[in-house]
């Protein structure tokens, strides 16, 4: 009875209340489905000049070196007191002088030989005059003997003289003819003897010139201003011919053979129209091409927190490519290695320094974008409706963290620098301009 009279009515009341609430509550609010925008960072593409850059490292070496080699042997009589390792000597400095006594004796002997040969030549002139006079006398005597022989022949034919008298006259004639022939032979030999003496004088003159030259070679003089690298001679030491007395490095210029990537060099050379055309037709003339491209170079030496710089010129390329690294040696010349030297803060550019060489070509115009924004030759852009657009571009060159676009991208386009995931063409974007990155790209031309 309790169940029927109490519990069931309460349950019915509760069900009725619940039905009333459900029937009378408001309908749920319907939310329409909307497209979700993906947040990305963009930059505004700007066209600006950028100088192509190639860099490498190398060791400084002097452009010219002087090896003081003794051309003659002798005892070192004088050694320049300033000839010490590290010292700088001006052009024309006397480095070494050998004892000259032996060479002076050789000169005196050669001069004496010349005088003796000249005296002999003068003697031949006098002998010629004497022989000419003797020949005239002998010819007169021959004429007399011929007349005697003719008379003897006539008398013998008439029976007046004996045959022995005729033979005696004939013998006397023949003897006189022999004397004449002897004098004539002596005269004929005189031109040859004079020629021999003239040649002998020439030989003695060569000996004199050699002795004089060797005397001059006893003194070694520095042909250009240089810094002493090593010394191997002292006063009183015997110096052999061919021995190296000292090594000196020129200070008027220095050069660096920088190892540069072939790809960077190709980009650098093809950045100008002249370089691109010539490279295709005559790769063997790369050094001449580089001189005509207007390349500039800078040699840099990190020194603590400072970086010292020296202007340089691109001179030539090395003859080979390093087989281990695939790098090309590019040789630059520094004409002012000792300029602006400051004691304690700025040393000269000296041999053995490990330096960086940066080479730049004339600036070329193009749209600059971050290298990371370029993917497989394409860029992602945000169009006017903030939707993703993929465009194919032509790259002029890629350098460091930037890419210079030649075609396919207009200045002012919004280039994505952060990639959405996934990448769907036409997707809605929430665009934010990366002002700091744009300022960095704008300064790229000046920084490079």
What labels describe this entry?
8 helices; 4 domains; single chain; OB fold (Dihydrolipoamide Acetyltransferase, E2P); alpha+beta; conserved putative lor/sdh protein from methanococcus maripaludis s2 fold; 38% helix; Elongation Factor Tu (Ef-tu), domain 3; 448 residues; five-stranded mixed beta sheet
Structure in a nutshell:
With 448 residues, this protein is an alpha+beta fold. It is 38% helix and 32% strand.
Per-chain topology:
Elements: H1 2-24, E1 38-44, E2 46-50, E3 53-62, E4 65-69, E5 74-79, E6 88-89, E7 94-98, H2 101-158, H3 163-217, E8 219-221, E9 226-231, E10 238-239, E11 244-250, E12 254-261, H4 262-270, H5 273-281, H6 286-291, E13 296-303, E14 306-321, E15 327-334, E16 354-360, E17 364-370, E18 378-382, E19 388-392, E20 394-399, E21 402-407, E22 414-416, E23 429-433, H7 435-442, H8 444-447
Helix pairs in contact: 2-3
Descriptive account of the structure:
The chain is α+β, with helices and mostly antiparallel strands. The protein folds into four domains: 95 residues, conserved putative lor/sdh protein from methanococcus maripaludis s2 fold; 116 residues, Elongation Factor Tu (Ef-tu), domain 3 (Beta Barrel); 69 residues, RNA polymerase II/Efflux pump adaptor protein, barrel-sandwich hybrid domain (OB fold (Dihydrolipoamide Acetyltransferase, E2P), Beta Barrel); 116 residues. The protein is built from eight helices and 23 strands. It has a six-stranded antiparallel β-barrel. α2 runs antiparallel to α3. About 2% of the residues have low confidence.
């Amino acid at each position: 009875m309790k169940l029927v009279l109490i519990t069931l009515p309460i349950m019915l009341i509760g069900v009725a209340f619940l039905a009333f609430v459900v029937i009378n509550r408001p309908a749920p609010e319907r939310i329409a489905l909307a497209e979700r925008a993906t947040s990305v960072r963009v930059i505004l593409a700007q066209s600006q000049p950028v100088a192509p850059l190639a860099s490498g490292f190398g060791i400084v070496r002097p452009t010219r070196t002087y090896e003081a080699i003794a051309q003659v042997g002798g005892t070192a009589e004088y050694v320049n007191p300033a000839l010490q390792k590290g010292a700088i000597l001006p052009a024309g400095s006397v480095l070494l002088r050998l004892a000259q006594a032996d060479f002076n004796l050789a000169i005196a002997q050669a001069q004496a030989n010349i005088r003796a040969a000249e005296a002999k030549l003068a003697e031949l002139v006098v002998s010629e005059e004497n022989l000419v006079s003797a020949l005239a006398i002998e010819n007169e005597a021959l004429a007399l003997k011929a007349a005697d022989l003719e008379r003897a022949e006539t008398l013998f034919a008439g029976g007046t003289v004996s045959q022995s008298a005729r033979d005696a006259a004939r013998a006397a004639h023949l003897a006189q003819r022999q004397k004449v022939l002897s004098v004539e032979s002596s005269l004929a030999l005189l031109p040859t003897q004079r020629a021999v003496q003239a040649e002998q004088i020439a030989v003695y003159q060569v000996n004199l010139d050699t002795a004089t030259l060797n005397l001059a070679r006893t003194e070694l003089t520095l042909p250009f201003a240089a810094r002493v690298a090593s010394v191997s001679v002292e006063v009183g030491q015997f110096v052999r011919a061919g021995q190296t007395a000292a090594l000196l490095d020129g200070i008027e210029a220095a050069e660096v053979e920088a190892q540069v990537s072939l790809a960077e060099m190709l980009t650098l050379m093809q950045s100008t129209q002249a370089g691109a055309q010539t490279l295709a037709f005559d790769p063997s003339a790369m050094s001449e091409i580089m001189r005509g491209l207007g390349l500039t170079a800078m040699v840099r030496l990190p020194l603590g927190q400072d970086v010292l710089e020296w202007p340089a010129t691109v001179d030539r390329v090395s003859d080979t490519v390093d087989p281990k690294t695939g790098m090309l040696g590019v040789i630059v010349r520094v004409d002012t290695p000792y300029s602006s030297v400051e004691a304690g803060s700025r040393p000269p550019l000296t041999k053995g320094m490990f330096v960086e060489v940066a080479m730049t070509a004339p600036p070329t115009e193009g749209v600059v974008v971050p290298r990371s924004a370029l993917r497989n030759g394409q860029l992602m852009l945000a169009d006017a409706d903030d939707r993703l657009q993929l465009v194919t571009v032509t790259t002029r060159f890629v350098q460091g963290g930037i890419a210079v676009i030649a075609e396919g991208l207009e200045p002012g386009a919004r280039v994505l620098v952060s990639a959405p995931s996934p990448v769907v063409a036409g997707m809605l974007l929430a665009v934010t301009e990366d002002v700091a990155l744009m300022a960095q790209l704008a300064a790229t031309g000046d920084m490079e």
